[in-house]
Amino acid sequence: MSSVTISIYGAEVKCASCVNLPTSLETKEWLEAALTRKYPDVSLQFRYVDIEQDEIADADQGFVEAIHNDEYFYPLIVIDDEVVAEGNPKLKAISEKIEELIK
């Protein structure tokens, strides 16, 4: 696989159950730093989708609606259209998905 796209869905305001955790944007920045160091030879693309914006791309609409309907906590981490983590994401689960894609 030439590139892996990691989408982070979230909002500036933390979810009620995430008060002691980093914001969604801080989570995106942390993942970008950690995964870029761990996979220097893999083209990783990071996207941040603000779920509170009025204009949401069609491709993101389903995940945004699911968050608004309380089906997922945010930040929601999606790789290759598959939910990999939510709320308090674990680097191990995200790394395992990347490993699976780059084999």
Automatic annotation (TrEMBL):
Superkingdom per UniProt: Bacteria
InterPro entries xref list: DUF1462, Thioredoxin-like_sf, YuzD-like_sp
Gene3D superfamilies xref list: Hypothetical protein sa0798
Pfam families, sorted: DUF1462 (PF07315)
Protein name in UniProt: YuzD family protein
